[in-house]
Amino acid sequence: MCRFLLIEESESAVNGIKKEDTRTKEEIYREKVLQSLEAAYPSVLAVDQILQMVECDDSSMVENILEELRGRDIVKMMESGIWVRKVLHDQKTKQEDIVNQMPTFKRGDQPTVAIITAAFAEKLAVDSMIEDKMTYMKYKTGGDSHVYTLGYIGEHKVVSTKLPQIGRTRAAKISSGNITTRLLGTFSNIDHVFLVGCGGGVPHYTDFYHHTRLGDVVVSSLNENGAMYIYCDKVTQDREDQLQYTLKTWKPNNPIIQDIVQNFKEKNDTNPSFRPWDELVIEGMEQLQNQQADFSRPAPHTDKLYMNVGGSDVIEVAHPPIPDDASAWFPTDRPNLRLGSIGSGKPVIGKDQLRLDFAYRHNIIAYDTEFDQVLDSICGNVIESFIFIRGISDYYDGSKNKEWTPYASLAAAAVMKTFISNLPNTQLKD
Questions:
Q1: What is the DSSP code (8-state) at residue 335?
Q2: 62 exposed, middle or buried (CB, 10 Å; 0-12, 13-18, 19+)?
Q3: Which class for 110: exposed (0-12), middle (13-18), buried (19 or more C-beta within 10 A)?
Q4: Quick one: pLDDT at residue 4?
């Protein structure tokens, strides 16, 4: 017997507004099975793992769903009862190799830029920006698999990967750090790391210039305390009942990417038509048009904003209007660039008031799904140049609004390519 709630798992549900799901039981579980395989990718899942993740006891129904998805060339059985999400590669991809051991590369063939994603749509969007690429996948049952796509962006050879997401447990976070360490150990010439994907915007209900909309792109920059990424480890109250946050913060020692970002932002501030990422978004949509996910921009009315008015009471509110003198710089049908620090941390994410208070105190303009272990790995491997690029897909942490996830991923990938294409490759001079 399957246990299922006819409640849409979305940002509105997180905010206390429940929306009835009128789909059939099979349709609901088809989506859940696919989402589980996409979250785990490139790791493989056994049927019993899938049953646990989708909270279903009906193994026959899940096995039938898997066979149906295999018939549509969406999933692949690696061995008996072991499944993985299948990738539909675009025309830029030479081939995909399943390997027992990653090939070795001479120094001149090593990538200089690593791109880390955490969601399936994010990896597809990033790879659509890479030229002359080839994907290598190494999988194993009962452990983490690895996928590396190597190719070119501008004069840089790059490698992209996806972290498997199997929950927000401590073990899953440690796994993401270990996979990052393995990536940087496999490709020892990495100079720069881009962390690219979705994030949740921090709403400013009355201040347009600090308000981030769905589809915008937040690029990490230092706040007034010199922190680029701020992780909340614990929340306590002092003797005056004031909230105190225990923090971990990171910033790159080499600001070369941030300098390029600032230069582009200044050009855009001077000339509103200077938006090189717009053309890349269009090109990416063409590359991704045959994917199952829809990477086009969702309709404007789907960008809904909610406000907690106390307890579990939530109301829908209007976005702050665009000032007349700013409309040329902030088109409503394209991704706008925002700079600011990025936050995360389970102690604050799940509670509206804490999430907003923490953000306002630290000038955080977007949240994501906890990359502290990944950052520890990056800094532990002495990578001094890194940056986060987050396409805004919800007003939570980037994990709740599936409708906006593909487009937000693509917008972030387009901005990423803009910056990598203008990043000097010092290794070409060696």
A1: P
A2: buried
A3: middle
A4: 37
